[in-house]
Every structure is written in structure tokens, then in C-alpha cells.
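Quick review question:
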């Protein structure tokens, strides 16, 4: 069985290898260094190679400003996916340099989907399977670009995706995707009940403290990605006297950890923004004092959320692990928390539209009304907050919401309820 080693980043940095000090190292089942795989991880870490670039381009000079350097957590995840693929190749007596898409990668998928290639013999989730195949394909394409193997021909398809421009007009662009890739739609996701959410948050607050509890709530209250949440700066929330209020929400600029490095404005419920401001001027300063007590010369971390134990900022890995404590079900994750914000906010706005009419009952409205009200809510509220722009994503959220309304089992004003319960 292959193994992954996490080197001492401090030691490697001291030796002059700062740019790759955080990169995991993979060894094969006989504890031998796997040269090609580790070279790939280093080049991904330094952006000397990226799957978005065509073959033959100089990755370091083309569009580096538009890419974020992968975090240690991202590189570790990539390493574990590659480890799984290399182990599978060994198990089926296949040299990865000879792997093809249709014959071998599809067999890899079949083995995972059937449970033949899983730790407990149970079929793996489609999301896990597709991400592993994505990582394997990227590695094999890199091998082709570096002339380490013969050309890897990945079967792809092209679809036209409708987009929204900054002026609200429709445009379209062609998107190339891997043939056969399965994507889990939000319509198939289970969202926790309010009682489940509050029990989960209470468990985190009791076992892991206020800071991690507030960080998890930040994801639920804003729909931010995990990286955007942990990298949210203290200065990104303006002083209270400078707040830009729109209704009962505060507008802030999201600059760090965003996908593709694209900045955007998000809105935070004012009650929750007050909690964040109070944390910044109170508990956060106590955490910061612990960091400075250990090292007076340590620079002040810019991140808003700091550990109560040592005053250091949290990583996405820490957020993901914290998220699992008292989770309502095993699949509950920060990404599903983001979906929860989107879907429940969508229902809240649809309910508001329904109340403008005599009936005032969302479940009693015709489906055409639900589609129109929902689409407006997505375009005006959901897309700007999440950064989503495709009509495909809009349709997925709308299908979920209409299915929930049809079942007459949905939440409204969930932000208010969450704030009321947490402040009581």
C-alpha cells in the first residue's frame, strides 16, 4: 500500500525550499519515492502546471494572476486521490503510463461504483468517484505534457451554457466537459431541519468553543465557500458606523479565497454582523493575545476567525473536521451548508412573493408562479452572493425548491429563526 508523508514545512523553508515546503510526498508500497507523482504535486503547488492551460504553454507566465496557489489542504486531498489511483493501478497490474480513458478509467469508476475498489466493500458516492477520476485524468494529461507517457486522450463533450452578463443580458459560451461525468444536483440533496441545525451548532459550541461555532455559522449565514470563510479578513467587515445597509443586511466585499480570485460583494444579516463585530472587538483580541504571548514578534494574522487555543487562523481542514461534530447526517459538509443557504434563502424569498397575494400560501400557488418568483430570487439574491452565473445552476435550485414546496415541508425566515435561537 502506498503512503503519504507530510514533511516539516518549517525545516524545508529553512533549507531554502519554501515554495514546496507544504507539499505532501508519496511513497509506493515498498517505501520507494514515486518520482513522477511527486514532481506532479510540486508543479501543481507552484502553478508550473495547471489543467486549465493548453499543452505547451508556459504556466508560470500565462495567467498566474487569475489562479490561487493551492493550499496544503488541497494538495493533501490531491495526493490522497492520486494515491488511490496508483494503488488501483498496482492492484489490476496496470502501468499508469499505459492507462486509457475508455478502457481503464471507466473500469476504475466501475470498481468504485460496485464496491470492488472501496475500503469496506460498499459502493462509493458518485461525487467521490468523479473527483478521483478528475484527479487521475489531470495527472495523466500532465504526464502527456511532460512527455513521460504516450498521449492521454480523454473523451470530452461541448455544451453551450447560458450566462448572465453584468448588465443582466443573456450570453452563452461553450464549455468542454469530461464525457460521462456525473454531477449531483441540489435537487437530490437532503437539508437538515432547524432542530437538527441547532443541535449541531450547540454541539460545536460546547465541544470546540465560540470561535469555531461562529465560523460554522458564517458559512450558514452567508453561503460562502470554506476557503472564503476561513480567509475572511477582520478588516473586510467595516466599522459599524460605516456599514452599508440594504434592508436588514450589511454589504461587505469578499476578496480572499474566492474561486478564480474574483472579488464579489456579499450581504450579511445585520444581527449576525453585530455578532461578528462584537467578536472582533472582544473574544478575537483575547485569542490574538495568546499568539503574541508565545511570540511577540509574530505578525498579526489578518483573518477574522482565530483559534481560542493558540490565536492562529483556522484552515479549511479544521473547518471541515469541526463541521462533522454532532452532524445531522454523515454527508453534512461545508459545501452542503452552502447549498442549504442557497435553497433556504430561495424559499424565503419565494414565500415573500407569495405573501403579496390574497392567498399568501406558497404551496397553493401555481407552478408557473413558483418558477417565475424563484428565478427572480436566484438572479437577484442567490447568484450575486454565491458567484453562480449559469442557468443550469439556477434550474437545479429551482427544481429543488419546487419539489420541497410540493411536499409542504419547508422552512421560511430561517435566518431570523437561527439568530433568535442562538441569541436566546
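Suggested answer, residue by residue:
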Amino acid at each position: 500500500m502506498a503512503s503519504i508523508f507530510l514533511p516539516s514545512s518549517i525545516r524545508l523553508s529553512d533549507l531554502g525550499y519554501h515554495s514546496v515546503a507544504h507539499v505532501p510526498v508519496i511513497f509506493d508500497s515498498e517505501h520507494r519515492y514515486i518520482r513522477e507523482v511527486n514532481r506532479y504535486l510540486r508543479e501543481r503547488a507552484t502553478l508550473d502546471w495547471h489543467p486549465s492551460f493548453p499543452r505547451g504553454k508556459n504556466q508560470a507566465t500565462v495567467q498566474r494572476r487569475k489562479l490561487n496557489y493551492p493550499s496544503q489542504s488541497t494538495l493533501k486531498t490531491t495526493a490522497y486521490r492520486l494515491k488511490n489511483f496508483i494503488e488501483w493501478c498496482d492492484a489490476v497490474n496496470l502501468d499508469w503510463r499505459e492507462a486509457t480513458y475508455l478502457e481503464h478509467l471507466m473500469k476504475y469508476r466501475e470498481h468504485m461504483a460496485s464496491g470492488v475498489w472501496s475500503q469496506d466493500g460498499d459502493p462509493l458516492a458518485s461525487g467521490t468517484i468523479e473527483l478521483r477520476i478528475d484527479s487521475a485524468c489531470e495527472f495523466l494529461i500532465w504526464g502527456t505534457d511532460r512527455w513521460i507517457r504516450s498521449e492521454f486522450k480523454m473523451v470530452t463533450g461541448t455544451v453551450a451554457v447560458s450566462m448572465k452578463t453584468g448588465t443582466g443580458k443573456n450570453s452563452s459560451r461553450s464549455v468542454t466537459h469530461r464525457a460521462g461525468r456525473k454531477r449531483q444536483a441540489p435537487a437530490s440533496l437532503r437539508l437538515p431541519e432547524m432542530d437538527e441545525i441547532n443541535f449541531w451548532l450547540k454541539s460545536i459550541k460546547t465541544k470546540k468553543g465560540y470561535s469555531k461555532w461562529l465560523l460554522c455559522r458564517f458559512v450558514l449565514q452567508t453561503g460562502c465557500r470554506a476557503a472564503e470563510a476561513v480567509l475572511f479578513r477582520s478588516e473586510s467587515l467595516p466599522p459599524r458606523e460605516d456599514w452599508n445597509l440594504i434592508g436588514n443586511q450589511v454589504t461587505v466585499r469578499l476578496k480572499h479565497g474566492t474561486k478564480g480570485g474574483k472579488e464579489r460583494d456579499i450581504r450579511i444579516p445585520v444581527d449576525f454582523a453585530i455578532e461578528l463585530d462584537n467578536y472582533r472587538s472582544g473574544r478575537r483580541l483575547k485569542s490574538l493575545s495568546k499568539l503574541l504571548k508565545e511570540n511577540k514578534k509574530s505578525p498579526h494574522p489578518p483573518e477574522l476567525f482565530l483559534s481560542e487555543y493558540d490565536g492562529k487562523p483556522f484552515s479549511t481542514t479544521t473547518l471541515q473536521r469541526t463541521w462533522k461534530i454532532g452532524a445531522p447526517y454523515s454527508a453534512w459538509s461545508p459545501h452542503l451548508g452552502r447549498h442549504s443557504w442557497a435553497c433556504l434563502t430561495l424559499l424565503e424569498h419565494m414565500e415573500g412573493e407569495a405573501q403579496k397575494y390574497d392567498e399568501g400560501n406558497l404551496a397553493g400557488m401555481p407552478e408557473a408562479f413558483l418558477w417565475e418568483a424563484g428565478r427572480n430570487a436566484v438572479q437577484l439574491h442567490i447568484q450575486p452572493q454565491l458567484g453562480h452565473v449559469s442557468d443550469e445552476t439556477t434550474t437545479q435550485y429551482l427544481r429543488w425548491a419546487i419539489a420541497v414546496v410540493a411536499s409542504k415541508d419547508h422552512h421560511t425566515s430561517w435566518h431570523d429563526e437561527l439568530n433568535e435561537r442562538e441569541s436566546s
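Why it works: Residues 59-65 have pLDDT under 50 and may be disordered. The radius of gyration is 23 Å.
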